[in-house]
Write a structure and sequence with these properties.
By secondary structure, the chain is an alpha/beta fold. 39% of the residues lie in helices and 16% in strands. Bound molecules: NADP nicotinamide-adenine-dinucleotide phosphate.
């Protein structure tokens, strides 16, 4: 499987498809999902301290025998915990890795944007994370951070799907060189029966999930669908051998319920 990548600068390439593991239970469920994903050709896994499965992600990657540098690993700092520099060391211990490819602030801490970001810049400087970014940042917070950062955030991971088409935020990211990463790109599996999606999928002989993921890819977003079922993990990779027409893209764009704002909130 040939997966395109977004360039985060300085030789860091982020595959546009990754496996998300939120709500994959620690232990066998996460290990198996990661193992199946790597077998299916995924080279990008998205975990977080909050998900409590970093150790299983690390174990499955180690067991795969695939060289570490061929896999893009993201984890996230929980702002409520200790400082980011001590937390990333704990994450790396659990992952049993020397570095992560991307370290994200999981959600914004009002009033502490500048301080936490300086700590992230230090983490990157020390080589503990190859790239740094944020999550759940709306346009206003992202602009504030971009205006004050020495190293700009490479990525903003937000809820992004046809039902959460954050056009203004996407355009801001595009203008300022930030990669928009789409979490819950399948709307947590709850919108796969939507009439527009089912109609398009039936007509082009694809799965509804593939249509939703392809929509994200055609907006240049990185998509990280979660599944713990092997056949779905495999099926979610089949999004690079077809294209949605501009009419279908427009019909999917019109499902947006956010009003096209730059907000990161639901
Ligand atoms: N930064 C943040 O604050 C944040 C927030 C939420 C999520 N995330 C990240 O984004 C990842 C993805 O988001 P998500 O887990 O919220 O939701 P999602 O990927 O939109 O949807 C996952 C749901 O869809 C089902 N599913 C997956 N593939 C399917 C297919 N081909 N056909 C039918 N159903 C399918 C899964 O079920 P099964 O597992 O049973 O197959 C699961 O219930 C997370 O795992 C996490 O890594 C980040």
């Amino acid at each position: 499987m040939e997966v395109p990548a977004r360039d985060l600068g300085e030789g860091v390439l982020m595959p546009m498809l990754g496996l998300g593991v939120w709500q994959a239970a620690a232990g066998t469920e996460t290990r198996q999902a990661v193992e199946w994903a790597l077998e299916a050709g995924y080279r990008h896994i998205d975990t977080a301290t909050y998900y409590r499965n970093e150790a299983d992600v690390g174990a499955a990657i180690a067991a795969s025998g695939i060289p570490r540098e061929e896999i893009f690993v993201t984890t996230k700092w929980m702002p409520a915990l200790r400082s980011a520099p001590s937390e990333i060391r704990r994450s790396l211990e659990r992952l049993d890795m020397a570095y992560v490819d991307l370290y994200l602030i999981h959600w914004p801490l009002p009033g502490r944007i500048r301080n936490s970001w300086s700590a992230f810049e230090g983490i990157r400087e020390q080589g503990l994370a190859r790239a740094i970014g944020v999550s759940n940042y709306g346009s206003d917070r992202l602009k504030k951070l971009l205006d004050s950062a020495t190293v700009p955030p490479a990525v903003n991971q937000v809820l992004f799907s046809p039902f959460h088409y954050r056009k203004a935020l996407l355009e801001l990211c595009d203008r300022r060189g930030v990669v928009l990463e789409a979490y819950s790109p399948l709307e947590r599996g709850k919108a796969l029966g939507d009439a527009t999606i089912v109609e398009i999928a039936g007509r082009i002989e694809r799965e509804p999930a593939q249509v939703m993921l392809r929509w994200g890819i055609q907006h240049d977003a990185v998509v990280i669908p979660k599944s713990t079922h092997r056949e779905r993990i495999v099926s979610n990779t089949r999004i690079f051998d077809f294209e949605l027409s501009s009419d279908d893209m427009r019909a999917l764009d019109a499902l947006d319920r956010t009003g096209g704002t730059g907000s990161a909130r639901r």
